[in-house]
Amino acid sequence: MADPLPIIQLRNLRKEFNGTVAVAGLDLDVLEGEFLCFLGPSGCGKTTTLRMIAGLETPTAGEIYLRGQRITDLPPQQRGLGFVFQNYALFWHMTVFDNLAFGLKVRGLPPAEIEARVKEIARGLELEAVLGQRAARLDLSAMQRVAMGRTLITQPQVLLLDEPLNNFRPGLREIMRAELKRLQLNLGRTMIYVTHDQEEALTMGDRVLVMNAGRVEQLGTPREITEHPASLFVASFIGRPPMNFIPADYRIEGGRALLRHGSLTWDVTLWRQAIEAQMRNGQVIVGVGPADILPLALASHGEGEPLRTQVDLVQPLARQKILELKVDDLLLKVVVPGTFQVQAGEMLDVVMPSRALHLFDPLTEKAILLY
Amino acid sequence: MARVRVENLHKRFGRTFALQGVSFEVADGEFLCLLGPPGVGKTTTLRIIAGLEKPDRGEVFLDDAPVTAVAPQERDVAMVFEDVALYPHWDGYDNLAHPLKLRRLPREEIDARVRAVAEMLHISHLLHRLPGTYSGGERRRVAIGRALVRRPRVLLLDQPLTDLDARIRQEMTAELKRLQRETGQTMIYATHDYEEAVTMADRILVMKEGAVEQVGGPEEIYAQPQSTFVATIVGSPAMNLLPCRAEWNAQHLHLAHPAFELALAAPPLAAQPAEVWLGVRPEHILVSLGEEGQGIPGTVEIIQPLGREQIVELRLRDGTPIKIICRAEMELKRGSVVRLRFPPEYIALFDRATGQRLG
After folding, report:
1. HSE toward the beta carbon, residue B299, CA cutoff 13 A
2. Which of A126-135, A197-206, A285-294, B264-273 has the weakest average pLDDT?
3. Contact across the interface for A204 and B304, Cβ inside 8 Å
C-alpha cells in the first residue's frame, strides 16, 4: 500500500498574541484518513493551532495547505473543514432532524436532498430512532453524535475536534472514546483531535503530536511515544503514573560503565558508546517507568540488583495498584498487579532491570538514544 | 476526631425521595468514600451529617451521642464543597487562619497550625497570595486546608476534585490519602469517580437511588461486586455482562448465549433463575489468535493502546460487543479473528430479574 498523502500541511506556522508566542513555527503533515491527536497542557498552543487550521485565528506567519492548495487566507466557511466545539452548541429547542439539516438548509439545498442526506447520516450515527426528539432531551452520547453529525453532513474534508469529551463524567468518557474511534474508523474521515488528556490521545490517535510551549516535542504513534519518549517533557506527560526521574552520575569503574544515585546503581556498559556520544557533562537523568520497577517476588531471576525500599503509600486502582516506595531521598511510583498484597510501612525489595531504562540529558532535556 | 454513625436516614425533596433508609458507620480515623452516579443522595447524606439539612427520619451520632438536633456550628464537623468559596480579599494565610480566629485561639497557636497545614498540603508559597492568583488545584488545596486547620471531629468532602485536570486529580488523591493517614482525620468523601474512591478509601460505600448498595474495601468492591450496579461502576472498561439462559441440575450449570454455550460446575444456590447475566472483567478474558482451537470466536473491531496493555473491543458471532484487556505485544488488528475463554474462577453470575449476584 502506498503511503497516504498529506491532506493538510503546515509550514512554519506561527502565532503571537500581543507579543506572546503561542505557536512557534510549526511544520506538520496530516495524513489522509488518519486520527491525529494534539496533546499538551493548557497553553501549549494546541488549540491555537487547530483554530488556525479552521481559519478562526489568523497566523502571524507561515502557511497552511489543504491538498496542496494554499488556504492560509481563506475564510473558515470556504475551507471545507468541520469544527466540533467543546460545548456542542446544538439548537436545543430544535429536533435532531432539524439540527442535522441546518447546515444544508443554510446552503439552500432542495428539501428532498436534505431529507435523504439527514437520513443517511442518522443511519451511520445510530440516530434514526431519535430524529424527532428535541436535542435538549438527548443523552450525552446522542448529543455528541448529533454535534458530529451536524458537522459531518456538510461533508468536510477534515473534522477538527476541540476537547469534545471534557464535560463527560468519568466512566462515560471511556465509553465515548471507543465510540469516537469507531466512528472515525467507519467514516474513514481525517480527524484532528485536541486534548490535554494523555490517555485519551494514546487510546484514540493513530498518531499523537505532543506540544509544549508552542513547539513540537514529539510526533509519533502511541506506541512510539510510550516506549521511546523523545524528551523529559514527553516522558513526564505520558503514563499513569508517569515515569520516575532519578538524576545519576556516570562513571567508569573496573571497565564497566555505571550510573549511580545514592545506593542505586545501574550497569550500562552495553550502551557506553551511545551515552558518551550524547551526554554533555557526566550526568544523566534516568527515567524508569512505573511498570519497570518490579517487586523481587514478581521478577525473573537475574533482572538486576535487589534494592530495599519502604512502602509509603498503596493506592488500589481496580486491576492494578500504584505504590509509592521510599529509597534514599527518592519517592518512586510503581505499578503492580491488583492481586499483589502489600501494606504501607512494609519493606519491599525491588529490581530495576537496566534494559527498561530511559536516559535523558539534563541540559538539553532530550532522550539519549541507546540503539 | 470522632466515630460517625448514621441510622436509617430518610429525606424527601418534594416528590423526590433523596434518601430511603441509609445506615452506616465510620470508624475513628477512617477514610470512607460514598460512591455513586450523580443524584443518588451522596451530597444529601453529607449535608445531613454536617447539619445543613434535617433528615425526615433517622439519626446522626458522633461518638454515640445523637446530634441530629444539634446546630451545624456546634457539631464541629467541617465540609469542603465542590464549588470552593475562599475569601477573595484575604491572602491564603488569612483564609486558613479565619476559622481559628473565630475561636479566639492564641496567635502563636494559630500561626503554628496554619503553617503546619500549609506545609502538609504544599501550599506554603500561597500563604501571601490572593485566591485570584491560584490555579484550580491550588484553590482546592487551600479550601481543604481551611477545613483541616480546625481539626474538626469529622471532615466531609463533597467532590472536591471534580473538574480538575486528570493529572492534577491523580496527584491530589495520593496527597489526600497520605494527609489523612498522617493526621488520622476521620473523613467522608463523596465522589462519582470510582478511581478517586478506590485509590483513597479505606472502605467504599456504593449508593444507588438513595440507598446503600454495597459497603467494602476497594479491592473487595472490585473483586466481589454484589450486584450488576456495583460491577459496572468500578473498573474501566466496565465488567462485560452477557445475557444467558441458565439450566441448572445437580452438578452443572449450563449457560446458553446466542454466540456460545458454557458448562460450569453448579454453585450450591437456593435461587436458580433461568435468566442470568454472565459477568467477566476485560482483563480476565483469555485470548488466543486464530480461528482454530477452543474458545468463543470473536472479531477485533477497535484497539485502544494503553501503555503495556491494549483495550480491544470485539464482536462475538451474533454481534454482541465485548471488551478485553491484553498485553500490548499481542499482534491484533481490525478484523483479526480470535478465540476467547472465560476462566470459571473469574465468572460472576447475576440474577437478571434483580441484578443481584448469585452465590
Report:
1. 9
2. B264-273
3. yes
Peptide bond into B237 cis (omega under 30): yes
List of chain B residues whose C-beta atoms are within 8 Å of the C-beta of residue A185: 302, 334
| Chain B touched by A301 (CB under 8 Å) | no
Q: Where are the alpha helices (DSSP H) in A153-248?
A: 172-187, 198-204, 222-227, 232-237
Q: Which of B145, B96, B62 is nearest to B105 (CA)?
A: B96
- pLDDT tens figures, A88-117: 678 889 999 999 999 899 889 999 999 999
Q: Which residues of B touch A239 (CB under 8 A)?
A: 307
Scored b (16 or more CB within 10 A) or e, A190-207 reads bbbbbbbbbbbbbbbbeb
pLDDT confidence of A3, banded at 50, 70, 90?
low
Which pLDDT does position A182 carry in this prediction?
Answer: 84
Of the candidates B337, B325, B239, B300, the one whose C-alpha atom is nearest the C-alpha of residue A185 is B300
Spatial separation of the C-alpha atoms in residues A339 and A138, rounded to whole Å: 40
Q: Is B319 left (phi over 0), alpha (psi -120 to 50) or beta?
A: left
H or E element, residue A20: strand A20-31
Q: Are B170 and A241 in contact (CB < 8 Å)?
A: yes
Nearest CA in chain A to B310: A203
Each residue's pLDDT tens digit, B275-285: 999 999 999 99
ipTM rounded to 2 decimals: 0.84
**Hey, what's the cell of A1?**
500500500
Q: What is the mean pLDDT of chain B?
A: 93
What is the residue type of A142?
A
Cell 531471576, residue? A301
